[in-house]
Specification:
Radius of gyration: 17 Å
CATH architecture: Alpha-Beta Barrel
Number of helices: 12
Distance between the termini: 10 Å
Order of helices and strands: EHEHEHEHHEHHHEHHEHEH
Number of domains: 1
CATH class: Alpha Beta
Low-confidence stretches: none
Bound molecules: phosphoenolpyruvate
Structural class: alpha/beta
């Protein structure tokens, strides 16, 4: 069985004081957890994570990265800066980046490549809007988004990515895909990965994201192709985040 992975996406939330309490709470409650876990935090707090989490079972990472190497790109953060702070994961292509920063799937793919080249793991987000789901184009949309990344990777590197299926209509809304709905999309994504590299199809972790909470996490993560969660709101409370981590089978 693939190991489960639960990743907190703090989005643009946090303060040094609040982070210290949250991180200490998560570390203190991990005993007995079967899943791996990580937090993806705003870049200014990466140093704090490195200090608080080094040597613990909690990995950390960033929520975005430039596709460019260091240089004259004011306001951007490049992948080597993230490795400098011990990041293991970088979220790329979150729907909020796609929607508010007009990130194309092609740019997301270049970001994923930059993350891999720096020795970290990209968490590649894909997901359909409500209008796309209602139009029956969910699979076409997520396949196109994932395909852009797969097209840019040599087959041997495909196994190094993590994928997160996040229906846009479920993010931060309290609406969750049913386990069956999510499983159907995850199975499609896995088949698409397997078509590129069979071994990667079997091993790549595909996380579900979209209002995953303590009360629905176990059922979602019990699905054969749901390998964990990407958690927004519930990752900001240590108790809720831990309950989701402990819900992993
Ligand atoms: C997310 O931010 O990736 C997310 C899934 O948010 P939420 O859990 O709040 O829906």
């Amino acid at each position: 069985m693939r190991r489960k992975l639960v990743v907190g996406n703090w989005k643009m939330n946090g303060s040094r004081a609040a982070n210290a309490t949250l991180l200490a709470g998560v570390v203190a409650g991990l005993d007995g957890a079967r899943a791996d876990c990580a937090v993806c935090v705003p870049s200014p707090y990466l140093a704090q994570c490195q200090e608080a989490l080094a040597g613990s079972a909690v990995a950390w990472g960033a929520q975005d990265v430039s596709d460019k190497p260091c240089g004259a790109y004011t306001g951007e953060v490049c992948a080597s800066m993230l490795t400098d702070f011990g990041c293991r994961y970088v979220i790329v292509g979150h729907s909020e980046r796609r929607a508010y920063h007009a990130e194309s799937s092609d740019l997301v793919a270049r970001k994923a490549l930059a993350v891999l080249d720096a020795g970290m793991t990209p968490i590649v987000c894909v997901g359909e809007t409500l209008a796309e789901r209602e139009a029956g184009s969910t699979v076409a949309v997520v396949s196109r988004q994932l395909g852009a990344v797969l097209d840019m990777l040599a087959p041997a590197r495909v196994a190094q990515i993590v994928v997160a299926y996040e229906p846009v209509w479920a993010i931060g809304t309290g609406k969750t895909a049913t386990p069956a709905m999510a499983q159907e999309v995850h199975a499609q994504l896995r088949a698409q990965i397997a078509a590129k590299d069979a071994a990667a199809g079997a091993s790549v972790q595909i996380l579900y994201g979209g209002s995953m909470k303590p009360d629905n996490a176990a059922e979602l993560m019990a699905q054969p192709d749901i390998d964990g969660g990407l958690i927004g709101g519930a990752a900001l409370k240590a108790g809720d985040f831990l309950a989701i981590i402990h819900a992993a089978p």
